[in-house]
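hey so i finally got around to running the thing on that chain from the lab meeting. sorry it took forever, my laptop kept dying and i had to restart like 3 times. anyway pasting the input first so we r on the same page abt which one it is
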Amino acid sequence: MTFIQAVSVRLQELLKEKDMKSYGLSMASGVSQTTIGDIKYLRNKSVSTKILYDLCQGLGIEIAEFFDSPLFLSENITD
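ok and heres what got predicted. didnt touch it at all, straight out
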């Protein structure tokens, strides 16, 4: 899996875990719904750390918690 795919999967996991929709995350984080959709549906090849930080703030988690997933282990990232 590519890094951006792992980010997309992790974001969707956290949205489900927090019982949030993209709209709620957008309101809580200040990140546009379009940007959130672009990440979720892999329309971008990268995502800035500032956007990830803002999303984590909206989710009520630390950025370290975002990356605390087997998805981000070196052996699981292909790019």
